[in-house]
């Protein structure tokens, strides 16, 4: 009597990130690649999770409510059980001196925010390969995409449901979709949706984002997809 081969266990990743929108984006991108993602908001919580169970990789932010991710990194490198744990630093500090400091403290890779979820997934998989760990193969059949952009017809569907968008709303959402997970400035969104229309302002973008949010909320049971980053712009969170 034969039994089907047991599917490989997914690689386990711990994400230390206090921004809920970024955490959702990272978890979604990595789980699509077959990774099992656990999430911590605080350094102390991450420290406890690492002590309770082994992980194959750690993705950590630097600035956290109860301390610095770099302090945790320094601790891990000084502990035999975690000295070889692959670590990717995900930080809003992207200057050369910040990257050099992170790498000198023992990070295996450093990615500055805003980032591309696709690039993050590629870097994580490269680190796992280097460590001799493979992510489990993604499911052979994937669910339908959350959003579908019919560029020819300038229509966007959410969970298979067409959205009733104006021309400007379509352009705004299409721009946000192309850079999902990234923060788009008001100027960038204004240029994408209005081009050289000199009468349009940042306030015009804010007004259209408000109506766009309402339509997305109505189509998906109140879920918020567009987050505001004060002084920076807007981001589509998948």
Automatic annotation (TrEMBL):
PROSITE patterns cross-referenced by the UniProt entry: OMPR_PHOB, RESPONSE_REGULATORY
SUPFAM superfamilies: C-terminal effector domain of the bipartite response regulators (SSF46894), CheY-like (SSF52172)
DNA-binding region(s), residue ranges: 138-238
Cited Pfam families: Response_reg, Trans_reg_C
Response regulatory domain: residues covered: 12-128
Highest rank taxon of the organism: Bacteria
Annotated CDD domains: trans_reg_C (cd00383)
GO terms (BP aspect): regulation of DNA-templated transcription
Residue ranges constituting the OmpR/PhoB-type domain according to the UniProt record: 138-238
Post-translational modification 4-aspartylphosphate, affected residues: 61
Protein name: Two-component system catabolic regulation response regulator CreB
Species assigned in the record: Acidovorax soli
